[in-house]
Amino acid sequence: MPENEGVRTDGRTPGQLRPVHIERGWSKHAEGSVLISFGDTKVFCTASVTEGVPRWRKGSGEGWVTAEYSMLPRSTNTRGDREAVRGKIGGRTHEISRLIGRSLRAVIDFKALGENTVVLDCDVLQADGGTRTAAITGAYVALADAISWAQSKKLVKHGRKPLTGTVSAVSVGIVGGVPLLDLCYEEDVTAETDMNVVCTGDGRFVEVQGTAEGEPFAREELNSLLDLAVTGCAELDAAQRAALATAL
Amino acid sequence: MPENEGVRTDGRTPGQLRPVHIERGWSKHAEGSVLISFGDTKVFCTASVTEGVPRWRKGSGEGWVTAEYSMLPRSTNTRGDREAVRGKIGGRTHEISRLIGRSLRAVIDFKALGENTVVLDCDVLQADGGTRTAAITGAYVALADAISWAQSKKLVKHGRKPLTGTVSAVSVGIVGGVPLLDLCYEEDVTAETDMNVVCTGDGRFVEVQGTAEGEPFAREELNSLLDLAVTGCAELDAAQRAALATAL
Amino acid sequence: MPENEGVRTDGRTPGQLRPVHIERGWSKHAEGSVLISFGDTKVFCTASVTEGVPRWRKGSGEGWVTAEYSMLPRSTNTRGDREAVRGKIGGRTHEISRLIGRSLRAVIDFKALGENTVVLDCDVLQADGGTRTAAITGAYVALADAISWAQSKKLVKHGRKPLTGTVSAVSVGIVGGVPLLDLCYEEDVTAETDMNVVCTGDGRFVEVQGTAEGEPFAREELNSLLDLAVTGCAELDAAQRAALATAL
Amino acid sequence: MPENEGVRTDGRTPGQLRPVHIERGWSKHAEGSVLISFGDTKVFCTASVTEGVPRWRKGSGEGWVTAEYSMLPRSTNTRGDREAVRGKIGGRTHEISRLIGRSLRAVIDFKALGENTVVLDCDVLQADGGTRTAAITGAYVALADAISWAQSKKLVKHGRKPLTGTVSAVSVGIVGGVPLLDLCYEEDVTAETDMNVVCTGDGRFVEVQGTAEGEPFAREELNSLLDLAVTGCAELDAAQRAALATAL
Amino acid sequence: MPENEGVRTDGRTPGQLRPVHIERGWSKHAEGSVLISFGDTKVFCTASVTEGVPRWRKGSGEGWVTAEYSMLPRSTNTRGDREAVRGKIGGRTHEISRLIGRSLRAVIDFKALGENTVVLDCDVLQADGGTRTAAITGAYVALADAISWAQSKKLVKHGRKPLTGTVSAVSVGIVGGVPLLDLCYEEDVTAETDMNVVCTGDGRFVEVQGTAEGEPFAREELNSLLDLAVTGCAELDAAQRAALATAL
Amino acid sequence: MPENEGVRTDGRTPGQLRPVHIERGWSKHAEGSVLISFGDTKVFCTASVTEGVPRWRKGSGEGWVTAEYSMLPRSTNTRGDREAVRGKIGGRTHEISRLIGRSLRAVIDFKALGENTVVLDCDVLQADGGTRTAAITGAYVALADAISWAQSKKLVKHGRKPLTGTVSAVSVGIVGGVPLLDLCYEEDVTAETDMNVVCTGDGRFVEVQGTAEGEPFAREELNSLLDLAVTGCAELDAAQRAALATAL
């Protein structure tokens, strides 16, 4: 692709994110809730706070944060079976739920949280690539609101700051030899290499998961993907801060 | 409640529906999709069309319509476990999925549909009473759009009309001795009698499910509940028609 | 059907029940047990009393009553798979178990029962239509015997009456345009409308579940079905009383 | 136990069976059906014939016979959970189902049966020890009736005899040092050694399953138990023949 | 087979065991561990000791011993599905796990063991007939080592001897009319009668499980199989003692 | 750790692998089989070849390679429940099985393999950190043997080379601020950052999965971990080649 190298099907440049929208307060029940969209990917994230922690953590004085991810059956182009109907959760769902939970725990001070549990539910309403990265980015905002709620309700002790930083995530990949930021579904299925990167607001890494879908990838390719991801996460971090700056 | 008998917590009169909103085209993937709200109850309904029918119906020349209902874990005031995580579907979910499927099949001519299947997915994003009736009412609109799509794609033979009528549903109940239309959650939990009624547009019944939650109910009470439900369904029928009258 | 309108395949008139037999004391182990038959439908009902209640009810001072319904694999004309072998309970089984439980709870004073639990097991040995209504009618008798047992064992406090009334159930339906009482299987599969009605002994309603299997049904049809059901339940109530009048 | 050695709680002598009753034709649907009782143990056995065989046997020209055993939840003194509700079949149930199937296959000529399948369902209505041996003994009679039915319907070719013999089963055990035939529950739980023996009508063995519940058992003990079992099975064989000698 | 009657495919005489190898200490984690082989059958047995007992045994002062058996998917000639992937344990696995547990409990004094639990895991790495008998024979050795460990750690009170004897197991069967000891897979599949016998070191029986795979078997055949099994178990007992005689 | 920075609990230098052993031909049944150890971590890998492919791939002319990973219950310091007994596979197991499958598919030419399936089973016999990387490294050798077998049996067409390269894997992590190669369990649980890297023999990447267990990690840390991993994989590649160079 000599001339218009990097011009993407939706007109973006290689290093450009899709439009990001973050709507807080989408649920009247949840302590934190966000509808986030990365282009046509829409994920509904709720944060549920309960007093107490799982049995294995009782008496530790420390809290817990966990996550569950799921796709609505028709969030995709072809309807998928419900996991509840199949009676078991698939490997991909497990993997992504675990990734989201780990990513958010990276910015939590469990001592400061005290023996409270926050469950993040990330349900994909519409999928167009990048559902796990949108889920992490949105779940962070829901989590921040839930923690503010817990502070206001005195579930968290005065002066304690359970959130130690911010976290966001983005996908990157190599398509037709070109490193691209924030792949849409069409790009994702043709990518030679696909990577999901989770960063804190200070540009350090929480997770780096790169997979060669076709050819193995070289160290330089990995480097250029990481460069893209770091800039993408910085933009998402700004979007999160902007969303949280307004009153609920 | 002598003086303001029938004045409800949200200010409605006994025979008044909550505000109803029907947004079509909420999914870019599904052949029909609707976000319906009855007050604070919000249900996302998608209709997925596939060629072919389940094995037991093959070669019959007839189509099939079925439904699956589910609540997101934090659609309720307290977070509920995911059925996929528990590994089985609860009795209530089964019951409501079956009710939605039967209700919509009541207005389908399977011969006219031909060997095509429509699956209605009704996922409750936020619950405040009446989720099953909102699901039926919204799913009808998604089904109507899906059938138009199937006609435009020639999956349904020219001139055939798979939809034989319209269908909507509403809850009624007796609270503090007063028959009320369209119960919100707060009313639902205190109702002595609770009834869900599914009507066709011509005012006939598809389903009548009445349950005494406390005292058994008398024939006259049943009659006044049915009267309320019939007027409520007529209003919902009008709302469905209005929604479908606009271009997608 | 002009001339012999209402003459049914088994010779009954439209408003006639099938022969009802109630045998108490069919199990040497259960606190209450009944083999009930509505014609060729035979259901074995046991009532099991245990001290204590489920966790969510502990300390409330109130008891609990619940039910489980199941069909033996060859209770039907064609053998069905065992739900234990399939590893999950089907929607219909769930729905009927819940219906039986709700119906019996309608005549229980939980405070008077105290923190005791009664489980009703209704296993269909032979099915010929109306299994859920026979189950409710038989389970009531087993429940009454179980409560007498609990009183005799002082599990229920002296002077307390946990049973607040009687309950029975019958199916009604419209077949060939004619409202019929207590449908056998052959009638059930051809019914345009099918309704199960649960009444207390004083003729009030505990559950009304009507379903249009083909055409939607009109208000007058609903009314004539309810009339039939009320007379049927009154006869069943008499049969229950007669059965309970004899010594065990 | 010096003086009245061998006088049992229910007055039987060590080598005496409990009263055996075999009622044929207990189901109007099944091709063969039997309600068998060994004292207070009651098992309902149905034999279901279907044309065709499981996939792995197709085209072999040979039939198949299999069995499923289950206990109703309140067949025992204390109510047990339903395996369908727990979502899995326990080891004991599996083991007994397999034993019943093997025992009946021992008297089947699969070539003569042709590509037909017989499923034996053995549901314990009331348990008082020896449920598996009563199940085998009753299932044989149901199987014999089902095969007669299949012959009458020409599912089995003219002149073919799928049944090659008869089969019955009995439990034996050592209680208080004394070998006993046909243990009731009370004896079973105190037995030092417990054995289930399945014999053909000519006195040969199909299955011998002996278990030391307490002390290991010596060769002479094993021998005296086998002696008892062989005489018990001969009596059961006679009871089966008597039951089958009458017209259905 | 007139002349070389009893000469087996692998050259053994009818009463000859395959080579038996018992390697102790195969795991650095387990309190007892053994890799046992009977010819090409290899089973890895670990014994895990934990303080405490299952809930139903708490406060009894008695310990518990249980076992789980499993085959690796490619331990057999054709790969089998993993039971974890199918989501349920098959009947054969259940049956064998229960047999191993019962066999080992036969030589345990639960009072002497105190409230400790030993779980025996028997995983078949390579199968060539006799996996359950190799598992029992190996598990005994792992159990003995685990109990020595528990004694050394003072989990078992000073002077107490939880092991009351030794136990081993072997298969026997009739192939081509000839009783054979320790069947390999090729012999097992063609055996007319198949028996698994579990003996204590003093030659008494813990379990005798004989099954006619084809023709029913006569009393004399049973006797000659038991004779073979008793001599086989005596040899296995010697092998176990030899293995345990060396330092770990 | 000023002076002996990098001296590890087992005496290794930071960039040193544990001793690696690869034994081929460990199963007489499987088409390829390997017992691999990385220090005390032992994984048994079998490769099973079957003709044909899963349904979704039929007629494509392309083969398939997949993997299943599991830990024996007592492969770890404390016994874990069997996933077959729990009735479902955990998230970690799913995740690792998928990783192994993807890693091996990276060096397969599916066209050259033709419509054949290879299943890699990786069962951990003893765990001491790095089980997934040992599994990938061993599975590659089993896969290579299985493909040689398929070529020798003409399942793969003459001249076709299904293997396009070699693949191995190693873990790296930061412990006490020092980047280490091939973490044992003790190091793994204290690592601040943990990364698994899968490389081809030419030093390119198939998978990079880095996780911050405590603090987020910086770009330079990531770089030094990747450096270590590349050298480790090169050594493992040499060990694989050496193992495959000998006759089976």
UniProtKB/TrEMBL annotation, chains A, B, C, D, E, F:
PROSITE patterns: RIBONUCLEASE_PH (PS01277). Residues 16-146, 166-231 form the Exoribonuclease phosphorolytic domain. The gene is rph. Phosphorolytic 3'-5' exoribonuclease that plays an important role in tRNA 3'-end maturation. Removes nucleotide residues following the 3'-CCA terminus of tRNAs; can also add nucleotides to the ends of RNA molecules by using nucleoside diphosphates as substrates, but this may not be physiologically important. Probably plays a role in initiation of 16S rRNA degradation (leading to ribosome degradation) during starvation. Homohexameric ring arranged as a trimer of dimers. Its EC number is 2.7.7.56. Phosphate binds at R92, G130, T131, R132. One of its GO terms (molecular function) is tRNA nucleotidyltransferase activity. This is Ribonuclease PH. InterPro entries: ExoRNase_PH_dom1, ExoRNase_PH_dom2, ExoRNase_PH_dom2_sf, PNPase/RNase_PH_dom_sf, Ribosomal_Su5_D2-typ_SF, RNase_PH, RNase_PH_bac-type, RNase_PH_CS. It catalyses: tRNA(n+1) + phosphate = tRNA(n) + a ribonucleoside 5'-diphosphate. Keywords: Nucleotidyltransferase, RNA-binding, rRNA processing, Transferase, tRNA processing, tRNA-binding.
